[in-house]
């Protein structure tokens, strides 16, 4: 007889859980019974004594507008030293079943895109002058004044900051790039076919290494042609 008067007492439905799309409404329920058929009050009993109540019905609202949803932080803007990371965002829209999917960013153009940044620090940047680097000496004088000559220079692999560096094997500097050239051509202009000295002091001009000066080079063409 007691089982015949078991029933659910239910409260009022709540407002919809969503402001757009599909949500749910909830209410309070309790399994109760009357101690006797002519009793005016009820008493709560175990929920399992009552049959399951009807499930909460879904509530439908207007279609949700797309909106920006932040996802993850981007990679650091640098590969060494200090940089920044940006919080990435995608434009998403809610389906009728409550699921979300990503849509074209243009659908969110009426809303401001989230812009957040934070600092990031990676390993210290390695300065070229504190690791290994090529040291290049000045070019030597050209081996000919015309007709094509050559110049040479010394190139060494150095390690450590300038002023306190030391020479090491060339292979250590190959990671910074190919070794700079050791030779180059110079004075490639053709030599004059008829070339003679116009003063008797040309031998002295050559000995004093005055041939590079135009006024001596022209007057002592023959003597200066092999310097």
Automatic annotation (TrEMBL):
Keywords from the UniProt entry: Repeat, Secreted, Signal
PROSITE patterns tied to this protein: PLAC, TSP1
Region (Disordered): 34-60
Gene3D superfamilies (UniProt xref): Thrombospondin type-1 (TSP1) repeat (2.20.100.10)
Domain PLAC per the UniProt entry, residue ranges: 191-227
SMART domains linked to this entry: TSP1 (SM00209)
Gene Ontology terms for molecular function: metalloendopeptidase activity
Alphabetical list of Pfam families matching this protein: PLAC, TSP1_ADAMTS
GO biological process: extracellular matrix organization; proteolysis
Compositional bias ranges of the Basic and acidic residues kind: 35-51
Cellular component terms per the entry's GO annotation: extracellular matrix; extracellular region
Intracellular or extracellular location(s): Secreted
PANTHER family on file: ADAMTS A DISINTEGRIN AND METALLOPROTEASE WITH THROMBOSPONDIN MOTIFS PROTEASE (PTHR13723), PROTEIN MADD-4 (PTHR13723:SF305)
Full protein name: PLAC domain-containing protein
Species of the source: Labrus bergylta (ballan wrasse)
